[in-house]
Amino acid sequence: MKMKRLLAILFTIHCSLFTVYGQYTTSDDITYKGERDERCIDMMGVPLEGPDSVFLPALKSIGLEQFTPEDPDPGDYYFRGEFYGIKANFVVSTDEKTGLLSTVLVTSGPYRTFALYDRNYRYFLLKLQRHFGNFDAKGDGSLHLMLDKGYVKISNTLHEDKSRTIHVFYLNTTPYYKDAMSQGLKGSVQEVITENPVFEGQVEHFDENGKNSTIDIIDREYNANGYLVKAAMQEPSGQKSTLSYEYDEEGNLRRRTLTNVTEQVRSVNEYTYNDDGEIKTQSQKVFDKTNECILSINMKNDYTDHDEEGNWTRNELKLMYWEKGRQARNMNVVQTRTISYWEED
Q1: For the chain, how many helices (H) and strands (E)?
Q2: What is the pLDDT of residues 213-238, one digit of tens each?
Q3: Contacts of 309-317 spanning 24+ positions with Cβ under 8 A
Q4: Which residues touch 208 (CB under 8 Å, ≥6 apart)?
Q5: Which sign does the torsion angle of CA 114, 115, 120, 121 carry?
Q6: CA atoms of 221 and 184, how far apart (whole Å)
Q7: What is the pLDDT of residues 75-119, one digit of tens each?
Q8: What is the model's pTM?
């Protein structure tokens, strides 16, 4: 019922706002200047994620104007502007529990002539396919595409007066917080239990939004795309050690630095990844107050089993351990993991 009501509101708005339909503007492809997120579905470059403090300025930065209709739905945000250079209206819906962006519905029209509707429909489809890939046909006449990070559908409504309205629907399916994803985990992970942990915790929990819920990490700071960039850890002395995180262009955790101010010790973890986004190698180096390396650990993973989500459940780990003043040692460690997931609504 909510969707039907949305469509009715948008149809009324379009009828009152647009006197000329399908007029192309010079800003055919508006380029989003903000930070991209490769792990999230986007609309014209804008990541469709986060709270309103994140998505409102992002959408406004590409020229969309926010407005309020006569009878708005709670948790929805309304915009007018251009969709690939053509006038359109936008409804951004948020999750009732979290307030995070959930869906975006774009409407263009109504078009009084079939020729104009058909031209713009094909134009939108071309833009979407160039960006996301080929769409599949559904039985209701719409075209859709399911991606690892979301869902996109393009459809139309035929009105009683024979005019048509084009709809483009975006659904974000990835967690906003990337704590689990930046560790190479796929899907809506709830809990990971690791036998023979080395760098990871034996039991790690993630909430429904992808945030690691361990109590050891405090004072967290996330960037606009939900990546943890700064944090702290409480030491037994009462002092705080600082944590910083760096990511590669794909959103994978590249470096994690822990600095113990009291002991003047710095620990640096670095990661590389395979083609499936899994951690291929990882290393840890510990430096003293003179910046001399006093400990080094290098590990190489060989994943031999995976679950249905594509997360590894068995790993044959090769490890080389060196400590200042001691002989380096090589070890083989077999790890197994039990992973549980949040159930999708």
Answers
A1: 3, 22
A2: 877 889 999 999 999 999 998 887 77
A3: 309/186, 309/187, 309/339, 309/341, 310/186, 310/187, 310/276, 311/184, 311/185, 311/186, 311/187, 311/189, 311/337, 311/339, 312/278, 312/337, 313/337, 313/338, 313/339, 317/198
A4: 98, 175, 188, 190, 342
A5: positive
A6: 20
A7: 999 999 999 999 999 999 999 999 999 999 999 999 999 999 999
A8: 0.82
